[in-house]
């Protein structure tokens, strides 16, 4: 049994080594380069194992990775820190100006995409003879429709876009995962045969209010308490600890109360990022707090994207499901196009949404570790292998292909927007 320290040592060492090789030779964006190198290393090990079966390299690394609970690592570990770091860097005043755009894309866009992806995925599965019932197809739609805040924020670091559009994308990514997780929870219960009551309109509204609304309120309360504590002192080590305690305490408390942990830490991060630098932090404290959260963001992002690449070794794909997985990529892209276009057309009178930005917003719909983590958490069923393969296909395509070409798409489309 390998220890947690050994696992951390392996992942950090591989992240550093692959990061160096990527910077020295491939020169791809850092997180995309780590994912690609992790994926290539996984495939190389599979080939070595097939060529030299007595070496057992593939089996040894697989045993190590089997001890990593990807869902727990992402949803109950990395996610809180990454969302808080992203929310702290977001300009709340600019976000308020784009509130309608962000709310529309996060809520209406996610609902439209879930329905479209679920329906199309089910129809293609039926045509291919794959055992994916309609309820489980909707589950796939719910877990793959929200753009991944971690992947989006990492991708935007390498792309120059107008500030207002960047705020819109960051806000959508930070908030729509909470909506998607609520939909995912309801639809999994229904698909598993235990959620008939929860699928009523009143049940969904209550769950949404409790999880999403409760998470936002909790984040504002804990964020304000942390802000007042930071304002009462001027001691950067203590203030750094307060931010760490805020993230871990808020996320843990949200889980205990049944509220949305992601939305809670986003709300707390927005409040701290807006008020603390102006009213509670000295210049020295700001320097240390900013450096800490930049470092946390970079390190955890590196490890997460590396893990996504290495997880290929332990995921159980079925060859019959690969065709359906390939079809999932255009399905998700088309659904993203419709989900972005519909709110833009519906609310154009507000002046906050621009039809010229639709191609860029469609291509910028990057998915990442959250979708993989949710797919892995699905109860065992005949539909799970197909959903897992489709999820992984979409995640790899959006991060590698869309993420690496997003700058080119921005240059060609945003000039007209």
UniProtKB/TrEMBL annotation:
<protein>
    <submittedName>
        <fullName>Sodium/proton antiporter, CPA1 family</fullName>
    </submittedName>
</protein>
<feature type="transmembrane region" description="Helical">
    <location>
        <begin position="288"/>
        <end position="310"/>
    </location>
</feature>
<keyword id="KW-0813">Transport</keyword>
<feature type="transmembrane region" description="Helical">
    <location>
        <begin position="174"/>
        <end position="192"/>
    </location>
</feature>
<dbReference type="InterPro" id="IPR018422">
    <property type="entry name" value="Cation/H_exchanger_CPA1"/>
</dbReference>
<keyword id="KW-0472">Membrane</keyword>
<keyword id="KW-0406">Ion transport</keyword>
<feature type="domain" description="Cation/H+ exchanger transmembrane">
    <location>
        <begin position="15"/>
        <end position="410"/>
    </location>
</feature>
<keyword id="KW-1133">Transmembrane helix</keyword>
<dbReference type="Pfam" id="PF00999">
    <property type="entry name" value="Na_H_Exchanger"/>
</dbReference>
<dbReference type="GO" id="GO:0098719">
    <property type="term" value="P:sodium ion import across plasma membrane"/>
</dbReference>
<feature type="transmembrane region" description="Helical">
    <location>
        <begin position="322"/>
        <end position="346"/>
    </location>
</feature>
<dbReference type="GO" id="GO:0015386">
    <property type="term" value="F:potassium:proton antiporter activity"/>
</dbReference>
<feature type="transmembrane region" description="Helical">
    <location>
        <begin position="134"/>
        <end position="154"/>
    </location>
</feature>
<keyword id="KW-0739">Sodium transport</keyword>
<keyword id="KW-0812">Transmembrane</keyword>
<feature type="transmembrane region" description="Helical">
    <location>
        <begin position="102"/>
        <end position="122"/>
    </location>
</feature>
<keyword id="KW-0915">Sodium</keyword>
<keyword id="KW-0050">Antiport</keyword>
<feature type="transmembrane region" description="Helical">
    <location>
        <begin position="204"/>
        <end position="227"/>
    </location>
</feature>
<keyword id="KW-1003">Cell membrane</keyword>
<dbReference type="GO" id="GO:0005886">
    <property type="term" value="C:plasma membrane"/>
</dbReference>
<dbReference type="GO" id="GO:0051453">
    <property type="term" value="P:regulation of intracellular pH"/>
</dbReference>
<dbReference type="InterPro" id="IPR006153">
    <property type="entry name" value="Cation/H_exchanger_TM"/>
</dbReference>
<comment type="similarity">
    <text>Belongs to the monovalent cation:proton antiporter 1 (CPA1) transporter (TC 2.A.36) family.</text>
</comment>
<feature type="transmembrane region" description="Helical">
    <location>
        <begin position="6"/>
        <end position="22"/>
    </location>
</feature>
<feature type="transmembrane region" description="Helical">
    <location>
        <begin position="390"/>
        <end position="410"/>
    </location>
</feature>
<feature type="transmembrane region" description="Helical">
    <location>
        <begin position="34"/>
        <end position="52"/>
    </location>
</feature>
<dbReference type="GO" id="GO:0015385">
    <property type="term" value="F:sodium:proton antiporter activity"/>
</dbReference>
<feature type="transmembrane region" description="Helical">
    <location>
        <begin position="72"/>
        <end position="90"/>
    </location>
</feature>
